[in-house]
């Protein structure tokens, strides 16, 4: 194999790993949103592993963007939008990643 091919393959694997990581974060945020609905009926349940991921992520977003309006927190929505933007940029950089994901 040529050096150029190895570099391209390494970049594709790296970008693929980033996409999978972003999707995992997106699922954790989604689970947190579903669990937060339990507080409407006085059920407060948020596993520690979700808190360790979500709380710092929410803090970063809240530091740069005001995310509350009328008592509602739009931080998860902003995170979803940012993840979708990042994955679309990654797919534009290397369209072959979509081939890995469709198999």
Q: In words, what does this structure look like?
A:
The structure is a single chain. The protein has helices at residues 3-36, 48-64, 75-93, 96-101; strands spanning 68-69, 72-73. With 103 residues, the chain is mainly α. It has one domain. Strand 1 (68-69) and strand 2 (72-73) form a beta hairpin. The protein has 4 helices and 2 strands; from the N terminus they run ααββαα. The protein is 74% helix and 4% strand. Strands 1-2 form a two-stranded antiparallel ribbon.
What value does the Rg take, in angstroms? 17 Å
SS elements, strand count: 2
- Report on the biggest sheet: 2 strands, antiparallel
Q: Regions with pLDDT < 50 over 5+ consecutive residues?
A: none
Domains, number: 1
Termini separation comes to 24 Å
Shape: elongated
Strand content: under 5%
Range of helix content: over 70%
**Which structural class best describes the helix and strand composition?**
mainly alpha
In N-to-C order, the SSE pattern is HHEEHH
Strand arrangement in the largest pleated sheet: 1-2
- Overall mean pLDDT: 86
Count of discrete alpha- or pi-helical segments spanning 4 or more residues: 4
């Amino acid at each position: 194999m040529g050096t150029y091919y190895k570099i391209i393959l390494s970049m594709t694997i790296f970008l693929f790993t980033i996409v999978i990581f972003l999707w995992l974060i997106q699922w954790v945020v989604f689970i947190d949103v579903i669990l937060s609905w339990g507080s409407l009926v006085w059920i407060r349940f948020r596993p520690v592993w979700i808190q360790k991921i979500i709380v710092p992520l929410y803090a970063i977003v809240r530091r740069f963007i005001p995310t509350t309006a009328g008592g509602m927190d739009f931080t998860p929505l902003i995170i979803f939008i940012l993840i979708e933007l990042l994955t679309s940029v990654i797919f534009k950089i290397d369209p072959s990643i979509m081939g890995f994901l469709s198999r």
